[in-house]
Structure formats: structure tokens, C-alpha cells
Write a structure and sequence with these properties.
With about 270 residues, the protein is α+β, with helices and mostly antiparallel strands. Strand 3 and strand 4 form a beta hairpin.
Length: about 270
Amino acid sequence: MRAAVGTAPPTRIDVEDLISADARRRRHRAWTVAGTGAAAAVAAVLAVPAMLVGPAGTPAAGPPPAASASAVGTPLCDSVTPKASGPQPPLQSHDTVRPRPTETPAEGVGRLSAALREVVASQLPDGVSVESVQPRCSAPQFRYHPSYREYEAGGELRQGESAGWFMVRVAPRPARDEATCEFAPDSRNCNRVVHSDGSVSVFSRMPLGDGLIQLSVSVFRPDGTLVSVVTSNGRIKPAGNGTATTVTAREPLLTGEQMIAIGRAPGLTLYP
């Protein structure tokens, strides 16, 4: 009898850790199907043309500078928050590498949005512009999701007739080590890099068929912040009982290097 019960079953913490890690991985994959991920609920055609346009030349290899004082003072748009169509997800309770930030969501939205606008403008390729997917916003702006205790922003990239969506997520870094290709959307097409500042980037390229490609980057930062950047050259949308694929560009309009630079931007931190 003692031998039969000598090995203890997984603890409640172990089970919750596995469940939460799997949920984050599935949620990451779901961004592709939604087209704009969590921002799909607020996606709309903007009346204001793109405000951020990339400069000529190639992006710098290192992380961009922190947001300037003028960028931090950029006013936020008064976007409309749609009513939820169903019950909200339960509050996520997975452990993080350090205590969760105490900054209020309102402060975080303003600070992170200013930092995002500045770094995206510095990393956009020549001729590529970005529009917000939120109504009444002319530039990307973060939204706080209380169930996940994280920030997300979405945008539409454009270059002539080509287009592509992108998402940026800023969240507390989980205690479980997920800085590996095992947790990438496509572990078979993945590259992991340890940077000189101690951050780790995991880049994945996932072909989805019919010419559709998703690029995903997760930057695990030593300060306890996880920044995820996802972009695609098209969308998959519901159509009847199935889905319809629309390719809007030959390739995604951001490169992996540019996405990593965005993820490493000093201003995109939960611990300023």
C-alpha cells in the first residue's frame, strides 16, 4: 500500500501552472484566426488616415531609445469600448517572476501607448504606415484587459495596396520558463536569441496555407515584462460554416528584426 501511494500526485499549483501555460499558448495561436486577436471586438474602418509613417533606411539593430517627454505627453483618443458579447474570462492566477505591477491601468495605458507609438514609428519600413484598429483612434493605443492583467494594442499596416494587421501585448512574465521554442505558435519554424541585455527573444514564422503567413515574437525581459508582437499578411475570418482566407500582402510588412526591436523598446515595460 505504501508503495502504491509513494508518489504524490501533481499539486494544485503544478496543475494550475500547466493549465495557464497551455491557455496562453492557445490564446497566442487564436490571434491568427481572429485576424486582430483581442482587438477584433473593436476593429473598425478609421475616418482618419494613418498618422505614423516609417522613415527611410534600415532599422537599428539594438533596442530603440525610451519614449521622449513629448511622446509621453501625447493625448490619448477617446475610443469606444464595446459591450462584451458573453461572459468574461476568469481572472488569470498564474505566478509571475516578480510581484505584479502596482501602476493603475489608466497610467499604464497612457505611458505604454506613448512608448508604442514612438517605437513603431522608428521601426516601420520606408513607406509603411499604421492605423489603429480602435474607433476614433488615429494611432495605436493600448487597452487594459483585467481578466489577463495585461495590455494589448492592435494596428493595421499599409504600404500602397498591401496591408497587414499587427498586435502588441505587454504582460507580466510568467514564473514558468516559456522562453523557448516549445511555446512558440510554430515550434518547427522558430529561432531563439539571448541578447546582451539579458532579454530573450523567441521568433516564429508560421505558414497557414493559401499564402497566409504569421510572424510572432515574444521578448522575455529581465525586468519581469513579457512583450509579444504578432503580425500577418492577411486574415482568416468566419464565412458561413467555415472560414475565408484573405491575403493582403505578399509578405508581412514587418520583419522579425523590426518586431524584436519593438519588443525590446525600453518604454514597453510594466516596471518603469
